[in-house]
Amino acid sequence: MDELAQLFTILAEPVRLRLLGLLSSGELCVCKLFPALGLPQSTVSRHLGILRQAKIVAARRKGTWVHYRLTRESWPAAWSELLEAAIAAATIEHTRQSSILSVYNEADSEKVSGIES
């Protein structure tokens, strides 16, 4: 039960959920993650450290940057279904927000170029 409570504590942070959603597509460099989240690199690294300590993600250094990936194979059985559901929800939310942003960006670029409907 304590493990489950620990997982809920980890997933209670929206930044960590967003990180899981981004990492669901595969290994990513922290240099790609912090701009995608719009947060300082130090903040993103701190949250990745928490996920790494819980063995939800693994890190691999390549030059000066660290690359992260999900470690589904090492998740406790009690966590797997909850993590997969959280990742799916975070991925859907990220896609939805990206779609909304692209609509706003298109509208802004039309205004700048003088094309208004």
CATH class: Mainly Alpha
Share of helix, binned: 55-70%
Average of the residue pLDDT scores: 85
Form type: globular
**What Rg is obtained from the alpha carbons, in whole angstroms?**
17 Å
Secondary structure tally: strands: 3
Q: Profile the largest sheet.
A: 3 strands, antiparallel
Using the 3D structure, state the CATH architecture. Orthogonal Bundle
Q: How would you characterize the overall build of this protein?
A:
The chain has a single domain (2-113), classed as Orthogonal Bundle (Arc Repressor Mutant, subunit A), CATH 1.10.10. Strands 1-3-2 form a three-stranded antiparallel β-sheet. Helix 1 runs parallel beside helix 5 and helix 3 crosses helix 4. 20% of the residues are buried. Strand 2 (57-62) and strand 3 (65-70) form a beta hairpin. The protein contains five helices and three strands; from the N terminus they run ααβααββα. It is globular and about 45 Å long. With 117 residues, the protein is mainly alpha-helical. The model has no long low-confidence stretch (mean pLDDT 85).
